[in-house]
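> tool_call: predict_assembly(chains=two)
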Amino acid sequence: MSNWYDTNQEEYKSFDRDILKRLLTYVQPWKKHVLIAIVMLVISSLASLTGPYLLKVAIDDFIKAEFLSIEERYSGLVFIAIIYLAAQLLAWIASYYETYFMSWAGNNAVYSIRQDLFRHLQKQDITFYEKQPSGQIMSRVTNDVNSLSELVSSGLTKVIGDILTLIAIVVIMVSMHPLLALYSFVTLPFLLYLTFGFRNVIRDAFRKVRAEIAKVNANLQESISGVRVTQSFGREEENLKQFDETNYGNFAANVRAESLFSMYMPLVDLVGAFGTAIVLWAGGWMILNGGETNGLSVGVLVAFLGYLDRFYRPIKDLSAFFAQLQSAMAASEKIFAVLDTQPEIKDDGILKLPPIQGEVRFDNVSFGYEEAQEVLHNIDFDVTKGQKVALVGHTGAGKTSIINLLSRFYEPQEGRILIDGHDISKVTIESLRSQMGIVLQESFLFSGTVMENIRYGRLDATDEEVVLAAKAVNAHNFIMELDKGYETEVQERGSKLSVGQRQLVSFARALLRDPAILILDEATSSVDAYTEVLIQKALDRLLEGRTAFIIAHRLSTIRNADVILVLKDGQIIARGTHDELLDGSSYYRELYQLQFVE
Amino acid sequence: MNVLWRLVQYTRVYKYWVILGMVSMLISIGLEMLVPRIIQHTIDMLVDARGDISLLTYAALGIILVVAVKGFFAYWQRYAMVYMGQKVIYDLRNEFYEHLHELSFSYYDTTKTGELMSRATQDVETLRRFLSFGLINIFSNTLTFLIILGILLNIHWKMTLLTLAIVPVLLWVIKQFTGQVRPAFGKIQASMANLTSTLQENVTGMKVVKSFAREKHEEEKFHVVNLDYMEKNVQAIRLWAFYFPLFNFITSIGTVLVILYGGREVIAGRLTIGEMVAFELYLLMFLTPLRMVGWLTNLANRAMASAERIFQVLDTEPDIKDAANAYELEDVKGRVVFESVSFRYKDSERLILEDVSLVAQAGQTVALVGATGSGKSSFVHLIPRFYDPQAGRILVDGHDIRDVSIASLRSHIGIVLQETFLFSASIRVNISYGVTNAREADIVNAAKVAGIHDFIASLPDGYDTVVGERGVGLSGGQKQRVAIARAILLNPRILILDDSTSSVDTETEQQIQKALSELMVNRTTFIIAQRLSTIKKADQIVVLDKGRVVERGRHQELLANSGVYKEIYQLQFSGQEEARGQVNTDE
């Protein structure tokens, strides 16, 4: 789902050379394309400027040249027409290649930035994702990269073209008639003020408009999602009042911005009219007061009027370019900040964890998500191959932290975690996690078919193996009842399947992986009785013959566990089987009564 | 056409703005036509070197004056139309919003939020552009085109006819352009949507990705969509790069004709240089409206389609409405009666509830038990009239709920829905959602009863902490307790608790249960229960199976019956019971 009603404010940043340099490294591999684009740009800019000059030649040298014969004057016009047409044709072709080559280079650069960003995001720790909302991370890869794309794919060459065009016009005008050129430039400061000064006021007004419309859309989005609650509580009128306020804010911002903009165009036209009037008057005066002796002909005057007209566009483009540059700078800064974030958990060693047997040892492990706040203190335990370990305790006792450490989503501040005697911080993450199966509390399914989702556990599994895994966890029957069986699309977040069915699919996924160590955060959601039975049976099958760590929410789980670790405030305060603990630990008994019994 | 007419109705309220815009447009177009004429005469004067300085001064001042006055009217033209367009959109948006709040649950069952959002944002935006810019541009462009055509014919009709030859060419190219470029940009959007959803899935499923060490696989997936987006962009720009400068090229053919033919005519003495220059200037003004033809027809078409989509929503009648002579339901005791109620969802053949009758005395607790899909949720949704039954009737204190106003009915009913929804506002606002001007003490009290006060007090901003989608994230259990506090503050006579403890752990659930039992005292309560203790305490247990009431009574009675209830009980609750037994014997 795209976030076009994102409430994020746009940001702007002034020019930063280092950022631009870094941005340009992405364009570097395509420098041949850029070079061709620039050459094409020069050609098309110059070719499209020939018009007024050719008109001048046509008027002065042929139309008005009464000393030439009619035939000579006619053929002269044909000659001018051919050159004019050729120049325009050239401008068309060159402009096509310029845009094409530059957009090729620019879009490839944008592709690389996006891919780099995504690759880097894959390397980030879980912490990174827990610290910021997913919308913000998404916005880096979509909106921020998009706001670069215009700059790198057209902006950079456009600015060269615009400057070139401006210089060319000045040169042509000065060489045709220096004095009249001087008169022509009188209005320039006003034009510059309008485009760079007034234009900014307008731009700010339109930024306000975008912020206001984002508010309207956010309000709408929330109102629609919560409409059932609103109706239940009879809050319709109050909501409408609030919406009306936001809606009116948007209306007012729009009218203000548009009002400014409505002034802008007439003002630019007026400055243009002054320019025309001055050139016409001064030029006319010179012609009347000296005729052709001061080098000013009617043709030159006409050409001047033509060039004056063309002066405005590049200036307008330049002002747009600076706005583009500002927002691109802000976007790049955020993008590079992500790229410069180093994950804390990295592969230091290149050692691969050999095939896991299944012995796990926590050696005096202490850990805190924040340095100052330890949530686990001196955790010490040994698990032999094939044992089922149940973790119990109140919310915040440290159950989740233990499995987070074992899967190396985090690293302990003190102590070591050993699998088959290997310190897990010394082996590659890939070799560790590829031998572990982790089943999360919320069964997340990817969009795609049921088949693809189960296969996520082992990408090279055959269809038969997938079906076998599904059968083993009792998922096969309900899958076959779906519209298209295994080829049914589960949609985003598996919305078509029930909670229980999603769990079964995620079990199948874990089973297919056939991990040596299984980590399971039992789901707490209640499912209907029939599904509950299916899940329990599936669990038995899934746990068979593996070392397993389970954050337990089911009665049957703690009963079947080989060892239960009872956690309180980050410490293991008791351990043993269910029966042993019922006898030996009053804390466990209380906990048991509270969590597993009514 | 019908749609257009209806759209015009919205603008009628602002007809004076429309008139102002139109009149200003006429004046500004008229003035715009003068400038080339002034230039023409000045040049002709200079060519013959006959005029004097004062004429020249008049010309220069004339140009400035004409453009200034024209600018004044151009401003008012634009401002008036923008004001009108924005105001219409503002009205339309409010109407849309209000209507959304009138539509019944059944509408939201079948309509996705995203779909409504795209109507309220993209479609409304298209309409805005059409009303503010499209409408007036259609008039002004047609007018400009016709007036200039007249002027050109007047200057030199043969040359006009000659240059008109490029018009069909230009139109043909514009048709090609819009026909090819629009789908190309559509493809870019589709590709971006694809990229975004791939990314979103990756970010939300990151824990799974990492658990399965599938980073490389994800990278490959992303590469495919990223590359596709890049290619779609280059393809579209390529088309654009071809066509856009082509317009300039075609326009320049017109200039070439003026130089060639016009030049000859000047040499032959049938045309002045001034006229030739003016002709060229008018020609450029003449072709601009043509270049906008593609944009305008496209905008108009899209606006009509958008208007249709918006009206479609506005025309949807809510299924549930106040009866014509609905009266206020006051002083409710809480007796709820179902009389032979049958219900099915719209567009569905299957009966969800079939001939269900029930009497709940004021203050009683009714527990609904049954498998998923047995009709429990539908049952409770009928009481506040989220849906109306097809047969039978429901009475509250003897009043048929279809005879009383919906607002008054719902003001007596507190509902904690299956999915807890909090608004992006402070906790205070969320708790006092159903009550205007709630007292601070009452809010705190409600939070205390719901067992959430201590947690709220521990937050740095306390009751002012902003929660919801754009605020602090609360856990499922905390959200539910805020929702319960919301229901408590409402102090309703009838309470509906729909499966409200489905996604929290047992410990939290118990806290919630405790809060709920506080809440249920002295209120008629309908509860869809998962927990045995709640069910045991109920005055009435209603067992639903495929929409029919198969058993009813108290816990012990039903167990003795050895019916469906006992089966469910054994499957679902015996574990809990057994465990309790174990603890009890241990002690």
